[in-house]
Amino acid sequence: MENLTSAGFLLPILAVFTILFAVPLAQTVYYSFTDFSGYSTDVSFVGLENYRKVFSDPGLLQGLSFTLLFAISTTILITVCAIPLAIALDKKFFGRDFARSTFFFLSVPSMAILGLVWQYIFSPLESGVLNTILRTVFGADAVLWLAESSLARACVIFVGVWGGVGWHATLYLAYLQAIPRDLYEQAEVDGASKLQQFGNITLPQLVPGIVVSTFLLMSGGLKVYDLPYTLTKGGPGFSTNTLTQSIIVQGIAQGRANVGSAVAVLFTIAVAAVVLAQLAVANRIERSMS
Asked: Are 168 and 217 in contact (CB under 8 A)?
């Protein structure tokens, strides 16, 4: 009877999962093997032709490379910046609450809003905010921030880090406050330096938080769409194009739902592989720390 009651509670969740995930995923897999355009219901089986087009399309390959670059770069940079920031915000100093609120506020606006704001700041025109400052203060020429491929990629990654550091620092701060202060007092009595306390106490205690943070960063980075689209529209060329943008453009704007479905299937497999790898590494780290 108890099992039946538990199953009853799980039925709504199962129904939502089936309707919103399983059925659309099955349809996407099916359309990826057909010539479905997104409008006509008359489809024919084409085998792996759509997947061949994906791997021969330079725009899609560029989207794949930048998506991986963005996800990995933002994960590493945000983690490296957020942990020291959280440690600094955990200390007692005048205006600490205001500082915590300020850094957290950086993560409140959506990435789409941040993209629009920073598009104005990084404008490659001489009237751009950053170029105006460089010209006024240093007498420098205008920099093509969003008009040159490598600079555009760097700008997108920078804004991604800007928008994520505050939130993840708050996450780490919550884990820091859960560490017993007695551990640090005992370490000081034993003569441990601040660096030794960080390596032997703080960092091991932050491992669960690092696992959660990096999981969110990687999965979010692989699915990123709004920030590059509002900041650079995927340009110049395809230099800041992402996989999610490619799926939308191929499937909706260009009426190539078959190719867009193939990209979506490959994207789903890639995200699942990354998530499973992260979970495996996290479990191994937690076992080694216990």
From this structure: yes
- Using 50 as the pLDDT threshold, list the residues of the chain that sit under it: none
> What pTM, to 2 d.p., does this model score?
0.84
Torsion of CA 22, 234, 214, 269, to 10 degrees: 30
The amino acid at 80: V
Rounded distance between C-alpha atoms, residue 248 and residue 101, angstroms: 36
- The predicted-structure confidence for 187-231, as pLDDT tens digits, reads as follows 888 888 888 888 888 888 888 888 889 888 988 898 888 899 999
CA-closest candidate to residue 211, choices 269, 279, 260, 274:
279
Q: Name residues whose C-beta falls within 8 Å of residue 211's C-beta, 6 or more positions apart in sequence.
A: 278, 282, 285, 286
- CATH class of the 30-289 domain in this structure: mainly alpha
**What pLDDT is recorded for position 73?**
95
Return d(Cα 247, Cα 222) in angstroms, integer. 13
